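Teaching assistant here, posting this on the class forum so everyone can see the example we discussed in section. The complex has two components, and the goal was to see what a joint structure prediction looks like when all of them are supplied at once.
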Amino acid sequence: MVTRTLIVANRAGIHARPAASIVKTANQYKSDLFLEKDTMKINGKSIMGIITLGATYQSTITMICEGPDEEELADAIGALFENRFEE
Amino acid sequence: MKSFTVLDLMDLDLKEQNHLGLSCIGGRSGLSKVITSSKISRPGLPLAGFFEQFSAFAIQVFGRGEQAYIAKQETEGDFGSITRFFDSDLPCCIFSDGGKPSAKIIELSNETATPLLVTDLASSDFTRRLIQSLDEVFAPTQTIHAVFVEVYGIGVLITGESGVGKSETALELVERGHRLISDDTVKLRSISDNYLIGMGQNPLLAHHMEIRGLGIINLASIYGVGSIRERKQVQLAIHLEQWDAEKHYDRIGDQNLADTYLGIAVPKVIIPVKPGRNIPIIIETAARNERLKKMGYYSAKQFDQSVLRWLESEAVRRSYIEDSEVP
């Protein structure tokens, strides 16, 4: 299991498009992805779930990856957050 | 949990018969004070000067008795224990029965930043509503990945891995006249450790659905307001999983599986999915069957009893026929 802390760096927060790109990336891997914010823990392979997190600019999200390719998945999602979802 | 402040208490979205009718008339600077407990205190004793075992952390409700006592103390000019009472760092004071706190009390609440609220409701009615609302606020919650629909009046939680077809199944159920409560994320709340209430995580997003190939759709505007619901008791859990030829599935219906959320057991049915199986109809049947069980009729057991009765009567018949063949 890989656990990392991510910070939302794009100004608009995680809205539909960033959520879709997280799901698209996550679906390329076999491992499970969970995202945690405050008391909410959601499946990172579901668009509606990610949007309901209500992750605004500068909010902190804990990412949990579990499975055979968890390291690669964590790196890929981490990179998305670092690149501000190309926004 | 996010902390629950006095302002949140005043902002609680409650319907007519549950409305608290609160308005703030003093101590506004304390409106951000956090309410930490669902306990309610009637402060008769502390007002009279007895502070042992006083629940200062609780919401203080002044009924007619307390108000009459304050009025009496005021005419006598004795504010000793009242001042001490307001100095106890209270979350808030509420005057019920349409009571009007005097200028001196408002001054005390402003000085100590204790929000002073009034309501027109009678204290008994008000405390009942308040306890009910606070129980819900402080109830343990859990957010799960599932779709929640109401089918024939039964709250059905559909779980399963992503991509197994939960949303598509729910869509078909809505098409067939059932109601969607939430897609994808369901917030469960245990009410008095007795039953579970499920609702959408966010009322703004709850009735939207993501269907692969279509994107995000709004059920309320496509199917109308009759196809959605805000909240519902969770009464049945349906777990969808890919058909596994190796696995043994319930063939009789007597397995009585259950899923436990927040310590409350919910009857569970596992439904294997494969092309050609009409899952919405199976779920409808499961919901009807669950209703029958609640009414005391247990299909699988009744069937078994009928079989036993029939076997019994056949056995008797055979012995009769065999007997008669004896010369």
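For the discussion questions: The longest helix of chain A spans residues 70-82. The CA atoms of residues 42 and 85 of chain A lie 19 Å apart. Think about how each of these relates to the inputs above.
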